[in-house]
Specification:
The relative contact order is 0.05. With 86 residues, the chain is an all-alpha fold. The chain contains four helices and no strands.
Length: 86
């Protein structure tokens, strides 16, 4: 048996329905902090360091995301990243 349930509600209503905590105040502080940090960055290196510090899992997370994107792009274009040895 297959049952489909469709809910028509706002994200706030769904959060309450699922009993999830309201983290909007924390999110606002986080976004404010990132904005102020980005305003102080004067070159690309500073922005890269900022991204490494605020990204989930730091630099490791950024590298994982980059490899994920490269793999996805390679698969979408039909190519492969395997190197050929002669």
């Amino acid at each position: 048996m297959k049952v489909n349930v469709e809910l028509d509600c706002t994200p706030e209503e769904m959060r309450r329905f699922l009993g999830l905590p309201d983290v909007s105040a924390v999110n606002d502080k986080y976004v404010e902090g990132v904005k102020s940090a980005m305003e102080g960055a004067t070159n690309v290196e500073q922005l890269q360091n900022l991204a490494k510090n605020i990204a989930p899992m730091g630099e490791m997370g950024l590298r994982f995301f980059q490899s994920l994107m490269e793999t996805g792009m390679s698969s979408a274009s039909g190519g492969s990243k395997k190197s050929k040895k002669n």
